[in-house]
Amino acid sequence: MICWFLSVIAITFSINFINFLVNKNNTVFYAVLVLLFVFIGMEIYDIYKISEPIGAAFYYLYNHPYLVLLPLLLLATLYSILFKYIKNGFYLDDAVSKKIKEVNATDLSWMNRFGSVAPFIKNDVKLIWRNARPKQVMFMSFIFLFYGLMFYTQDVYKQMPALLAFASMFITGGFLMTFGQLVPSWDSEYYKMLMSQNIPYKTYLESKWYLMVFAVGLSFILSTPYIYFGWDIFGMIAAGALFNIGLNSFLTLFGGALNRVPIELNVKAKAFSNTNGFNPTQLLIGLPKFLLPMGLFYIPYKLINFNAGLIVLALSGVLGIVFRNYIFKKIEEVYQKGKYKTIAAYSEKN
C-alpha cells in the first residue's frame, strides 16, 4: 500500500511537470493536445478503450510493489528535462532583449463601407493579426467548431435536447466567448488615449459587435458539415447562431463593462492556470450565456414540440437585432458610468 501511495504521488508530481512544460512550450502543448484528441476519439468510436488499461495499471502497481520504480523513474526524467529547460532560458539577456520584426501593412480600405465604425474594426483586425495573445484566442475559437462532435456522436445526449441546444450555441460562439468576453481589455494598453479622443461609446461598442457578428456568421458557414447529423441538428446550430448575434453578443458586451483587468497583447496566455483578463464577475455574467439558450429552447420544446423550441431560440436573437439600438444605449450607459474606474484600473501596474 505504501508503494502504491508513493506511485500515485510520483504520477501527480509528473503531471505537474508536464503541466509546466505545456504552459511554456508550444511543441509540448500541441503534442499533448493531439494525444488527448486521439485517445478521446478512440474511446468515443470504440476503437480502443484507453481507460481500461489505465485502470488495470493502477491495480497492477498495487499487486506488484516493486513497480513503484517506474513512476519514480518517470518523475526523475521529467524533473531533469524541466530543470534543463529552465536553466537554458535562465539568462537576463533573453528577458530584456527585443526582437525586431518587419511590419507588413495590410490593405483594409474595403472596410470603409462600414462608416464610422470602420476605423475601430480595422484596429481590431490589425490587433488580432499582429499580436500573440489575440492570435491564440483566434485559434481557440476555431476549436469551438468541433464542440458538437462531443455531443452529436453520443446517443445518450439525443435524449437531452437542452444540452444539444447548449452545444449548438457553442459551435458558432467560439470567437464571441473567447475574444468578445475580453472587450474592452484588448484595448487596455491604449484605453486612456482612446477615451481622450471624444469618441462615442456606441460607435466603439458597435465595432466590437460587428466583429462578433462576422465571426458568428463565418462559424455558421463552416459548421455546414454538421448537416450530416440531420437537419434538426443543423436547425439547432442556426437558431444558436441567431441567439449569439442577437442576445449573446449583447450579454458579452455588458459583461465587458464589468471587466477591468488589463491584457498584455504580446504575452501568450498559459494553457492552464491563466488568470490574465479574467475575474469572478465575468464568470457570473457568463452564466446567462449558458443557461438562457437552454431555457429558451427547452421550455417551448417541453410544452409544444421540438420546432417550437427552435423558433423561440431563433426569435430571441431576431428580437435582439430589432431592438439593438435600445440595447446599445443601455450598455453604453453602463460603460459611461464606469469609464473612469476602467481607465484607472488599466493605468495600474503590477
Description:
With 350 residues, the protein is mainly alpha-helical. It folds into two domains: 2-96, no CATH class; 109-347, no CATH class. The chain is 70% helix and 0% strand. It has 17 helices and no strands. Helix 6 packs across helix 12 (201-222). It is globular and about 70 Å long. The two termini are 46 Å apart. Mean pLDDT is 80; it is low at 271-277.
| Poorly predicted segments | 271-277
Helix content: 55-70%
Count of folded domains: 2
Q: What is the molecular shape? A: globular
**Average of pLDDT:** 80
β-sheet strand percentage: under 5%
| SSE topology string | HHHHHHHHHHHHHHHHH
Question: What structural class results from the helix and strand content?
Answer: mainly alpha
Question: In DSSP terms, counting alpha (H) and pi (I) runs of 4 or more, how many helices?
Answer: 17
Report the end-to-end length measured between terminal Cα atoms: 46 Å
Task: State the total count of DSSP E strands.
Answer: 0
Main beta sheet: strand number and arrangement?
Answer: none
Short characterization:
The protein is mainly alpha-helical and 350 residues long. It contains 17 helices and no strands. The protein has helices spanning 2-24, 26-44, 51-63, 69-88, 92-96, 118-130, 132-143, 149-152, 161-172, 174-178, 191-195, 201-222, 231-257, 280-303, 306-322, 324-337, 339-347.
Defining traits:
single chain; 350 residues; mainly alpha; 2 domains; 17 helices; 0% strand; globular
